[in-house]
Design a protein that fits this description.
By secondary structure, the chain is of the alpha/beta class. It is built from 11 helices and 13 strands. It has 2 domains: about 170 residues, 3-Layer(aba) Sandwich (Rossmann fold); about 160 residues, Rossmann fold, CATH 3.40.50.12030. The strands form 3 sheets. It has a 5-stranded parallel β-sheet, with helices on both faces. A 5-stranded parallel β-sheet has the order 7-6-8-9-13, sandwiched between helices. A 3-stranded antiparallel β-sheet has the order 10-12-11. The chain is globular, with a radius of gyration of 23 Å.
Length: about 350
């Protein structure tokens, strides 16, 4: 826990000067420290900053003048995002910041996602955005532990409505940074994936068995964001061993579903050389949002609607072959001990005799 955490405050001072100044005041009033990073490119801001936009551009291997002269706002903010992410990563590694607070419209939000992605899981990250939770945001841009707050009524200038949102965002990041407990354990940590007891029930038996042998178990819900967090920790070598028994996020990726953990699924432990036991749990299904139309690739396939958020359809044989190849390629590239288990009585609960997806 940190009584007076330092928060990295990120925004475009050229267009959001008053809002950033208000946020800085709120952070200080809450007992935190603030380091303001200017990622704007239009002009030098009038508010005092701790990290100038020229320094941000330099961290991306360019100059502010070169960014401006490029004449393309998308490329400009992409380069500034590179520099901002590099600086944020360095500051956190050096113990100089304990949280991130960024704000913006589409430009600032786009940049903020890259900065958040540069910080490790567990470092508080709050993005105050006019497009929070919008369909504009692809799932792969969202860091697993990101907090988003809608910046309602704040597109231009301060008012009572947006001050409330700004103050709440400041309170959220300070509270999270102050309350954070870095994960520390005297027992080796095993990372496990699952979909929950209604579909994959092995964790109920394995958790006490592993704990009896002196291990700590962390189970990740493989519905997209859980898999992203699992892969990030696995790639960082945070697990003593991995039991990756729920691979339908990889099936989702191969099948083109939005419920995905990205192209790196089933690679983190292998790259880190961590011992892994893998099973093809639920790879016969492709998930999709229950409120959306059935994707064309799954048209005519048996569907199981788990709840109002998520549904699953069985995949066709050609897609299953592609999924199997993806599993084999990833496991074949692993640097550490790897074991693939093949169940003989179904690969998930709904595949068992009498269940809706049995032999579908």
């Amino acid at each position: 826990m940190t009584a007076a955490p330092t928060i990295l405050l990120v925004g475009t001072v050229d267009t959001k000067r008053d809002e950033l100044a208000f946020l800085r005041e709120r952070l200080l009033a809450l007992g935190a420290r603030a380091r303001l990073m200017d990622v704007g490119v239009l002009a030098a801001g009038h508010a005092p900053v701790d990290i100038a936009n020229t320094e941000v551009a330099a961290a991306a291997g360019t100059t502010l003048r070169a960014v401006i002269d490029g004449g393309d706002e998308n490329i400009a903010m992409t380069r500034m995002a590179e520099g901002a992410a590099a600086i944020a990563s360095r500051l956190h590694a050096q113990g100089e910041i304990q949280g991130l607070l960024a704000l913006g419209g589409t430009m600032g939000t786009d940049l903020a996602f890259d900065v958040a992605a540069a910080l490790p899981l567990g470092c508080p990250k709050v993005v105050l955005s006019t497009v929070a939770y919008s369909h504009l945001i692809p799932p792969e841009r969202i860091t697993p532990d990101l907090i988003m707050v809608l910046w309602a009524g704040g597109l231009y200038g301060l008012n009572s409505l947006c001050r409330s949102a700004l103050a709440q965002a400041a309170g959220a990041v300070v509270g999270a940074a102050r309350a954070a407990l870095p994960p520390r354990s005297h027992r080796p940590l095993v990372g496990m994936t699952s979909l929950g007891k209604s579909c994959l029930a092995y964790m109920v038996a394995l958790k006490p068995a592993l704990e009896a042998r002196g291990y700590e178990l962390a189970v990740f819900h493989t519905t997209g964001m859980g898999g992203r967090a699992f892969e990030a920790l696995a790639a960082a070598g945070r697990f003593a061993a991995v039991m990756d028994f729920s691979l339908q996020e990889l099936a989702n990726h191969v099948g083109g579903s939005v419920v995905t953990a990205g192209a790196d699924r089933l690679t983190g432990a292998g790259r880190a050389g961590t011992p892994q036991i893998v099973a093809p749990g639920a790879v016969d299904m492709v998930d999709f949002p229950a409120w959306a139309p059935v994707p064309p690739v799954l048209a005519g396939r048996p569907v199981h609607r788990h709840n109002r958020l998520i549904a699953s359809a069985t995949s066709a044989p050609t897609l299953r072959a592609a999924i199997a190849r993806a599993i084999g390629e990833r496991l074949g590239a692993a640097k550490g001990p790897t074991c693939l288990l093949l169940p003989t009585r179904g690969i998930e609960q709904w595949d068992r005799p009498g269940e809706p997806l049995h032999d579908a």
